[in-house]
Amino acid sequence: MSKLIYLDNSATAFPKPEEVYKFMDNFYRNHGVNPGRSGFDAAIETEEVVHNTRKLLTDLFNGADPNRLTFSYNASDSLNMIIQGLAQKGDHVVTTFLEHNSVLRPLHHLEMDGIIEVTHVMFDEKGYIHPDDIKKAIKRNTKMVVVNHSSNVIGTIQPLAEIGKICKEKGVYFIVDASQSAGAVPIDMKAMNIDVICFTGHKCLMGPTGIGGSYMMEDVPVRYTRYGGTGVRSAVKTHLDEFPYRLEVGTLNVLGVAGLNAGVKWITEQGIENIHRKEMQLWKKLKSGLQNIAGVITYCANGSENQNPVLCFNINGFEAGDVGTMLDVDYNIATRTGLHCAPKVHEGLGTVEIHGTVRFSIGPFNTEEHIDTAIEAVREIAGIRN
User: CATH topology for 5-16+271-383?
Assistant: First the structure.
């Protein structure tokens, strides 16, 4: 069997940099103990890695206080804590048709339970949210605006600074899902007026699965929704108000934090802009190749500005799932097919009824040869019906 061509980086970046594998292995062999719970050397050294990772991510997002960088399982976990910790009876929330189920489902459950009302703003024909549409959707009782920075389906990068300015003027909290953008494009929370950013470690930050988190600016009244051990002030009966303990319960995934530490250092050393530039060169080659194949339909694949290297397509006469199977079995190319946990995007694209699309998503270890092979594979599959 030929070597796997992995084009499913929007799901999980793979492979990871060798530095990530080595650091995780060395760290866990020597420092796989609880951070901050004890005074022996290994525990202190583990806490140093944890705090250093908080600082790396705080600097990456241009935050101020590393203690306000809290870890979780992933972005979905953090988004649930933030949304449920902010929403109160009678609140209104503005979000978009570009959201992942990590936002759609928490909001839907709160709306279904009669706690909040939700407005979903549609994207335009190119895949972008107009800030004015967000502004028009804000009402007197709007508590927060939740926006996916970069779509996991069409890769469009939304104008956060413009949306954040509107939220600031209107006095509503601005929550950003940066699952697909943290580590891929620069994010400046201060300049963009972002109140809370939620991220996952296993995508563009090049860490392992099972680690993510959020950074929260001051004066965001998120209630804690979980209670438990923090390793400090154990005699206090209630959960602790201060950060990072406010949103962290129990023993941290220290192996995940270590991998995230190495991943952030790697992307910083490589240069986020350099990685993105290389990936987008491959994306442009892929887009051009697919759009020149008869019977292939691409979605919101227009210019390369404000775009991440994600491209969805279908082939006339084929189910997306069947195309994905052929790419896997016959060409050893890994893709993602279906609705990509983002049904409203597909509702906007008109692809729900045909069971979604095939998604190619490019990562830092993809090559021109990978792209050439993918284009030729799609050409051959499309030729079956022509």
Answer: Aspartate Aminotransferase, domain 1 (3.90.1150)
